[in-house]
Amino acid sequence: MTTQIEPLLRQALERRKPLLEALEREGTDCLRLFHGVAEGLPGLTVDRYGGLVLAQTFRDPLPPDGLGALEELLRKTLPYAFAFAYNHRGKKPAEPFEKWHRPAPEALREFVCREGGLKYLISARHRGIDPWLFLDLRAARRLVRGSSAGLSVLNLFAYTCGVGVCAADGGAAEVWNVDFARSALDVGRRNAELNAVPPERFRLVEEDCLTAARQLAGLPVGGRYGQKRRYERFEPRSFDLVFLDPPAWAKGPLASVDLVRDYPSLFKPAVLAARPGGRVIAANNVASVGYAEWEEVLRRCAAKAGRPLRNVTRLLPDADFPSFDANPPLKIAVCEV
Fold first, then answer.
1. Helix residue spans in 78-203 (DSSP H)
2. Where are the alpha helices (DSSP H) in the chain?
């Protein structure tokens, strides 16, 4: 395995040199060092989050000797000290895998990484399976930070509020961060505190995103969206910017999310909650969905809702998420309403 990855890792780091220099100037120390699906070893990624380097597998777990060899190679190759952790995200966590894949104790503590000079908490292991900061969304966070001055921002599926922190730091008048997971919002609150975000401009809403978005959009909440559970009530209102970054599939307390078959159920309330002349920044991370067909879904949905999109601009991830066919799994559309 080491003989396979060593030249590929060196090529990946060489390819990233211009980006690494730009990120350093920007005040960023977290990035994807190796993106296996595009760089020669599908199913393996290596990410840096400040003082933590996290390797992850998505198909087969690394054998013990392969894991040790990978860590040794990284320590030999990378020009900084780091704690190392490894997580397997695939469906084959067989014995004795669980006994030996645990990271060293120092890798289990919380770290603080930086992006654009802002600080974010990161942990290799927590209650969920996703890192607390999605690195491929960096370009979108950068855009939000640079264009939120004086705006009202609705951050749906906020997770740990990385986008919300960027909006607030960029001068947003108010930011609503909506997610049904209290544990994620707790991390988001701490991220806001790390960056001295005034709490009066940073609202945390622990609620099902579809239920909240439909109310804000003036749509009824019923049927599968909420008749069987109590939920927080909101009056309809508009936001200057709505950010929509749902998981590929999830079953929440009141509704399910399915980006392949039912993106319009998410996009319609997002569009209706955006003021005329505002924007919706929408994301879709399902690799099997092509950008052109997805953009057409967005345009048809907005038109049927009576709010046709005036313009749609595609935003690509940074170069540490290469896609040599120009079709990265993460698709980001900046929609002018």
1. 97-100, 138-146, 162-169, 182-194
2. 2-15, 17-26, 36-39, 64-77, 97-100, 138-146, 162-169, 182-194, 209-216, 264-272, 291-304
The full DSSP string for 220-260 is ---GGGTTTS---------EEEEEE---SEEE-SS-EEETT
3-class SS at 281? strand
State how far the Cα of 252 lies from the Cα of 234, in Å rounded to an integer. Answer: 19
Q: How far is 69 from 44, CA to CA, in rounded Å?
A: 14
Q: Domain map of the chain by residue range?
A: 2-122, 135-336
Crossing angle (nearest 10°) for helices 209-216 and 264-272: 40
CATH number of this structure's domain 2-122: 3.30.750.80
| pLDDT digits 0-9 by tens, 71-130 | 999 999 999 999 999 988 877 654 444 555 566 777 778 999 999 999 999 998 887 778
CATH of 135-336, one of 1.10.3720.10, 3.40.50.150, 3.30.450.40, 3.30.1640.10: 3.40.50.150
Judge contact between 313 and 326, C-beta under 8 A: no
Contact 164, 153 (CB under 8 A): yes
pLDDT at position 203 over 90: yes
Answer for the pair 213, 273: CB distance below 8 angstroms, yes or no.
Answer: yes
**Distant-in-sequence, close-in-space partners of 118: CB < 8 Å, separation ≥ 6:** 27, 145, 165, 166, 169, 195
